[in-house]
Amino acid sequence: MPRLLPVDDCDLAEDFDPTVPPRTPQEYLKRVQIEAARCPDVVVAQIDPKKLRKKQTVNIACFLRFPDVSLPPKDTPQRSSGSSSKWPISQPFVRYKMSLNKHRSHWRSQHLDSNVTMPKSEDEEGWKKFCLGERIYSEIDALSDNENLGIDYIKVGFPPLLSIVSRMNQATVTSVLEYLISWFGEKKFTPELGRWLYALLACLEKPLLPEAHSLIRQLARRCSEVRVLEENKNEEQISALNLIICLVSRYFDQRDLADEPS
Fold this sequence. Notes:
Elements: H1 25-38, H2 49-55, H3 58-69, H4 91-109, H5 124-137, H6 153-156, H7 162-165, H8 170-184, H9 191-203, H10 210-230, H11 235-251
């Protein structure tokens, strides 16, 4: 079958004008080349998180609820005393964990976006940057006005989406948990850190590996220490710390780390 637009090697006329409709195949191809050359090498999408939030699935919304709200579950009375002794096991956490286990194969099969490159399990600094973002990792206080126009996950950290955590086996989950707890041992608590700690706790499988058992106890103790320092200063952060202590002490049966009933 003959080619639809046979193109011979020939020069264009000197009066060629790329702004007018092409008259020959050669002019058409030349116009395509000019338009392609004008395209930037890198294009950054300006994303409105409010519009995306309406289209998110229930699973992803549940995942992001912890860092965005950092408050006790709705069915749990908030306690200003900073104690988690009367907190029941967080039902949203249990539901999320069940959903994760049920749909793990599906989410694992989903392709990651081209800008998502998960670090290797042994890459401690890579995982810290991946989870927390370069802004927190490098201790930059705020983003510039230009950077606020869109979401740059390299700078603000990747959220623990199901398509990401479903690819992590127990060894990787334990390693990343260790990296972040080590970071938390010297740095302040942030929403980015909180959402990943919450997600990794949900990924842990019972019975716990010895390393995981030691790590979550270390995490609960660190939360208790930070909570004392934050007493009467940041109510939302205290509530978030209470939630982690509650999950470790009650869901993972580390009862000796639970707050004494008041």
